[in-house]
Amino acid sequence: MKLKHLVAAMAVAMSGAAQADANLGSVGASAKSFGRIFVTSGYAGSGLGSFTDHYSFTLSGHGSAVGGAGVRHEWGALDLSLHSVSLSGGTLGATITDSTPLNFSFSNLGPGTYTLDIAGVLNGITGRAGFAFYSGSIQSVASAAPEPEALALMIAGLAGVGFATSRRRKA
């Protein structure tokens, strides 16, 4: 990473722009990005220990939510690791957890608002200054279930074939 990009990212992080709780809006076929920057300099900066970041999003139809999240860069005195991705809300009766944040998938989801939780640990190592961040993306994959209109046409067609068959047997 070039020095000016590193300095710019650190400035954004120190200004509080790193978001741990964000609304991703409506998630569709195009991927929505999320992430968080951790910075420490001397005795100030990101707190060490376990963390859980929350990202809410809305699905407008039936389908699956797929994506991935991973540590993209570490420098200096910070060691960042992600442990799990959880999904709650919407049509789910309980929280679903996937222990592979790098490649997650949640299927059989109905329309609604969901919360994606990213859990991890930020550890300090020797030194005072450090920089780390993770990023990820999520998108919706439409369900293979037929649309209600297509299902109604299929039932009407089967009923018509059944009626025609029964009339031929009587004749």
Structure commentary:
With 171 residues, the chain is α+β, with helices and mostly antiparallel strands. 20% of the residues lie in helices and 53% in strands. The protein has helices at residues 3-14, 148-170, and strands spanning 21-26, 32-41, 44-45, 49-59, 63-76, 78-89, 96-98, 104-109, 112-124, 130-142. The strands form two sheets. Strands 1-4-9-6-7 form a five-stranded mixed sheet, with no helix packed on it. Mean pLDDT is 81; it is low at 1-19.
Q: In a nutshell, what does this entry contain?
A:
The protein is of the alpha+beta class and 171 residues long.
List the helices and strands and how they pair.
Layout: H1 3-14, E1 21-26, E2 32-41, E3 44-45, E4 49-59, E5 63-76, E6 78-89, E7 96-98, E8 104-109, E9 112-124, E10 130-142, H2 148-170
Parallel strand pairs: 1-4
Antiparallel strand pairs: 2-3, 2-10, 4-9, 5-8, 5-10, 6-7, 6-9
